[in-house]
C-alpha cells in the first residue's frame, strides 16, 4: 500500500513514525506543509522514505498560504495516487486533505489541535467538525483526545486510541549516574512558552528553595519566556541554583532524566506527554499538572503526584512533599518504569496505527479511493 504521510512540520515524532513504517510492507511518501524535512543530522529523513517536491514546505503556515497550496496539493494527489493519506494536525494537513474529497484519510491528532486550536474561534470549530466528518479514521493518543473528538462529531467506532509510546531500550534507568547527595535536583524539559507553564515552575522553585537550600533546578530547552524566567530567578536571588543547558538531543536526554530526583511539568494543555513517559521510563518520579492526559498515567503516591493546573503554591507544596519523602522516591521510580513497560512501549503500541489504516480501508468505498 502506498501511504502519503502529510505532516505540518517534520519533527522527531514524525521521524519515529516513518522509521517504524519502513519496517512494514508499505511504501511511504512524506509531504511537509511548512519547514524543510532536512533540519539537522538528528532529524534526518529515514532512508527509504521518499519526499515529493512542491510549492509548500518552505514557509510558516497562515490561512492565505494554506488556501493557496490547495491546488498544488490536489495536483500531487493526482500524480501520486496514494492508497491512503495519513494527515495531521487536524486543522491544517488533515483539513486540507479533507477538502480534496480524497478517501481514505486517517487524521492524526497532535493533541493541541483538539485541546486548544479547535476552541480558538467559530471558524476553527467549523474546520474541526468538517475535517472529522470527512475523515475515515482518527488516531489519538489518549482518552481525553477521544472525548474531544466525539464532542466535535467524530464517530466513536472510527477513533483508534493509543499512546505514541517511547523507546524503552533508549530511555531506561540503567545508566551509572553519580548524584550529589547534598542536592535535590528538579528537571523541566518543556519549551519556555506560555502553554507549558514554565513561569509556574519558576515561581514554585523560588518559593520552595527558600525553605530547601539543597534544591536545584535544570531547565532544558528555550523559548519566548526566557526574559521572564531570568527575571523571576534573578529578582529572587536564586539564579545560581538554576542550570540552563539548552536543547538536549535524544542521546543526551536519558542522562538528564536519571540525574534528576524529580521531573516537574506545569503544562496547561497536553494529551499524552512524551517527556512524561520518558522520565517515567528512566525511573524518575514525577510531579505534573492535573490535566486529564496526565491523570491517565499518574496515580498520586504511586509513580509521582499531580497538582492543580496553574497553581504555583500547590506546585511549591508538591516539591516540598517530594523532598520530605525523598527516601521513598527510588521505589516510586521503579513503579514509574513498570507503568511504562506495561503501557508505553513504542514497539508494542505502533501496530495500532496499522490497525487504523486497515479500519480506514474497510469503512471506505473503493470508488472513493482516488481523486
How are the secondary structure elements laid out?
Elements: E1 2-7, H1 12-22, E2 27-32, E3 50-51, H2 63-68, H3 70-80, E4 84-88, H4 90-100, E5 105-108, H5 112-115, H6 122-133, E6 137-140, H7 143-151, E7 159-161, E8 184-188, H8 198-209, E9 215-220, H9 226-236, E10 242-246, H10 253-259, E11 262-265, H11 274-281, E12 286-289, H12 292-295, E13 304-307, H13 312-324, H14 329-343, H15 346-349, H16 351-363
Parallel strand pairs: 1-2, 1-4, 2-3, 4-5, 5-6, 6-7, 8-9, 8-11, 9-10, 11-12, 12-13
Helix pairs in contact: 4-6, 8-9, 8-13, 11-14
Textual characterization of the structure:
This protein has 371 residues and is α/β, with parallel strands linked by helices. It has two domains: 2-164 and 347-368, Glycogen Phosphorylase B (Rossmann fold, 3-Layer(aba) Sandwich), CATH 3.40.50.2000; 184-344, 3-Layer(aba) Sandwich (Rossmann fold). 41% of the residues lie in helices and 16% in strands. The protein contains 16 helices and 13 strands. The protein has helices at residues 12-22, 63-68, 70-80, 90-100, 112-115, 122-133, 143-151, 198-209, 226-236, 253-259, 274-281, 292-295, 312-324, 329-343, 346-349, 351-363, and strands spanning 2-7, 27-32, 50-51, 84-88, 105-108, 137-140, 159-161, 184-188, 215-220, 242-246, 262-265, 286-289, 304-307. The strands form two sheets. The protein has a seven-stranded parallel sheet with strand order 3-2-1-4-5-6-7, sandwiched between helices. A six-stranded parallel sheet has the order 10-9-8-11-12-13, with helices on both faces. Helix 8 links the parallel strand 8 and strand 9. Helix 8 packs parallel to helix 9 and helix 11 (274-281) crosses helix 14 (329-343). It is elongated, with a radius of gyration of 22 Å. The two termini are 16 Å apart.
Amino acid at each position: 500500500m502506498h501511504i502519503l504521510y502529510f505532516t505540518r512540520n517534520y519533527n522527531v515524532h514524525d521521524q519515529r513514525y516513518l522509521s517504524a513504517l519502513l519496517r512494514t510492507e508499505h511504501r511511504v511518501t512524506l509531504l511537509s506543509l511548512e519547514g524543510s524535512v532536512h533540519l539537522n543530522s538528528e532529524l534526518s529523513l529515514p532512508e527509504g522514505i521518499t519526499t515529493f517536491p512542491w510549492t509548500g514546505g518552505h514557509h510558516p503556515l497562515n490561512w492565505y498560504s494554506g488556501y493557496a497550496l490547495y491546488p498544488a496539493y490536489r495536483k500531487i494527489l493526482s500524480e501520486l495516487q496514494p492508497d491512503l493519506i495519513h494527515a495531521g494536525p487536524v486543522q491544517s494537513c488533515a483539513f486540507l486533505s479533507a477538502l480534496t474529497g480524497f478517501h481514505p484519510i486517517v487524521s492524526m491528532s497532535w493533541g493541541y489541535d483538539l485541546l486548544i486550536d479547535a476552541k480558538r474561534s467559530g471558524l476553527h470549530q467549523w474546520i474541526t467538525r468538517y475535517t472529522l466528518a470527512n475523515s475515515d479514521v482518527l488516531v489519538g493518543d489518549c482518552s481525553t483526545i477521544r472525548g474531544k473528538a466525539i464532542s466535535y462529531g467524530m464517530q466513536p467506532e472510527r477513533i483508534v486510541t493509543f499512546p505514541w509510546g517511547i523507546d524503552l531500550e533508549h530511555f531506561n534507568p540503567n545508566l551509572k549516574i553519580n548524584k550529589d547527595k547534598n542536592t535535590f535536583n528538579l528537571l523541566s524539559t518543556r519549551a519556555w512558552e506560555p502553554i507549558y507553564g514554565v513561569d509556574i515552575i519558576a515561581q514554585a522553585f523560588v518559593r520552595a528553595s527558600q525553605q530547601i537550600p539543597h534544591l536545584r533546578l535544570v531547565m532544558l530547552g528555550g523559548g519566548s519566556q526566557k526574559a521572564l524566567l531570568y527575571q523571576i530567578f534573578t529578582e529572587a536571588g536564586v539564579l545560581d541554583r538554576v542550570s540552563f543547558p539548552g536543547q538536549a538531543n535524544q542521546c543526551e536526554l536519558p542522562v538528564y532524566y536519571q540525574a534528576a530526583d524529580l521531573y516537574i511539568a506545569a503544562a496547561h494543555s497536553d494529551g499524552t506527554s512524551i517527556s512524561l513517559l520518558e522520565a517515567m521510563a528512566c525511573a524518575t518520579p514525577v510531579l505534573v499538572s492535573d490535566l486529564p492526559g496526565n491523570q491517565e498515567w499518574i496515580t498520586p503516591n504511586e509513580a509521582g503526584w499531580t497538582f492543580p493546573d496553574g497553581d504555583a503554591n500547590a506546585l511549591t507544596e508538591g516539591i516540598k512533599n517530594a523532598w520530605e519523602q525523598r527516601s521513598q522516591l527510588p521505589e516510586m521510580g521503579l513503579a514509574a518504569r513498570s507503568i511504562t513497560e506495561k503501557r508505553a512501549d513504542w514497539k508494542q503500541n505502533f501496530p495500532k496505527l496499522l490497525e487504523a489504516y486497515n479500519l480506514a480501508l474497510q469503512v471506505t468505498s473503493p470508488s472513493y479511493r482516488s481523486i
